[in-house]
Amino acid sequence: MVTEHPGLGYLFVKPDYKQTPNRPDFVQVTVAYLPKFVSMFTNKQLQKDIMEGARTQLAPDFKVFANYELVKGRPTFFFTISDAR
């Protein structure tokens, strides 16, 4: 699923059902901001705080793996969320 947020960017959500058909094994979430926001995310500590915030908010029930990249000039956060069990 992709949703566009005009003036901000895009949100991508992709559940993966390879192992269990009734419930996703993990969910990939990508938040891609428009290039005009690149200066907001140059601070490495802010990047870490955003990713750690996702981990903290979803713990202890879920594990969150997170990464930040510039993709074609777009500040982009990648999250993979899985059950902690």
Order of helices and strands: EEEHEE
**Helicity, as a percent range:** 10-25%
Overall morphology: globular
Question: Major sheet: order of its strands?
Answer: 1-2-3-5-4
Uncertain parts: none
Cα separation of the termini: 26 Å
Mean pLDDT: 95
Indicate the structural class.
Answer: alpha+beta
Q: What percent of residues are in strands?
A: over 45%
Number of helices: 1
Reported for the largest beta sheet, the result is: 5 strands, antiparallel
DSSP summary, beta strand count: 5
Radius of gyration: 14 Å
Fold and architecture overview:
This protein is α+β, with helices and mostly antiparallel strands. 18% of the residues lie in helices and 47% in strands. It has a 5-stranded antiparallel sheet, covered by helices on one side. A hairpin with a 2-residue loop joins strand 4 and strand 5 (74-83). The mean pLDDT is 95.
Question: What's the arrangement of secondary structure elements?
Answer:
Blueprint: E1 2-5, E2 9-16, E3 26-33, H1 44-58, E4 62-71, E5 74-83
Antiparallel strand pairs: 1-2, 2-3, 3-5, 4-5
In short:
The protein has 85 residues and is α+β, with helices and mostly antiparallel strands. Helix content is 18%, strand content 47%.
